[in-house]
Design a protein that fits this description.
alpha+beta, about 25% strand, single chain
Length: about 80
């Protein structure tokens, strides 16, 4: 099962309804999740005021283990390297 082995990471995608970049990032991350062994969680930026205050202008935002990794577009090579740490 993804996300349960040693070195497994938790990846969170902060999204917004109607955001095409969010849809692109979610599709890419879903395709990578089985291969790389991480669990993908999605959160709506507008569902929480504190989250909206922090991330609203940058969605989609990718977090790895709770730390911000990147926003707007998934840079696959950089993402893969981050999961190797």
């Amino acid at each position: 099962m993804a996300g349960t082995g040693p070195g497994a990471h938790r990846v969170t995608l902060i999204t917004r309804d109607g955001c095409h970049l969010c849809s692109d990032a979610e599709r890419q991350l879903a395709a990578l999740s089985d291969e790389l062994g991480f669990e993908l969680e999605t959160l709506d930026v507008d569902a929480d005021r504190a989250r909206a205050n922090e991330y609203s202008e940058r969605v989609p935002v990718i977090l790895i283990d709770g730390a911000e990794h990147g926003y707007w577009r998934l840079e696959e090579a950089r993402f893969r390297a981050a999961l190797q740490r």
